[in-house]
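thread: overnight batch results

M.L. [08:02]
morning all. the overnight job finished for the chain we discussed friday. pasting input first so we're all looking at the same thing
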Amino acid sequence: MLAKAKEEWDQEIVDKQAEKERYLSERITPLRTSGLSLSQLQDLCRELHEKVEIVDEERYDIEAKCNHNTREIKDLKIKVLDLRGKFKRPPLRRVRVSADAMLRALLGSKHKVSMDLRANLKSVKKEDTEKERPVEVGDWRKNVEAMSGMEGRKKMFDAAKSPTGQ
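M.L. [08:03]
and the structure it wrote out:
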């Protein structure tokens, strides 16, 4: 299969060369320099130089337009992606790295930084939390009976009014 592809590629190169020679023979007339005087040869050289300059200017202009169009195409592709809201995201792998290994990777092997997160945590004792919140244990039925009706609402209103100092 590779041999066949190489043969086709070689044939394509030969075909392009033949096409180039045919095109040049049609477009360019052969130069007749025999029998010309020195001044005529100089005039011919000047004409050829002028033609070469014109072709170079056109080539430069076309190349500049091509580069401009290429940049514009890239910008438009970016705008299209922005408008779609879709970006090509690479598939990510899950990597398990400890905090120490990550710091070593970021800071280099020269720095020896250990990150013991558990040492920085505040210890909490259960006894402290229970002492802070005294729990009132009482008969809930008395509280419900006391707060029922309009009298209960008045007590709640008075209780809410008194701590503010009014």
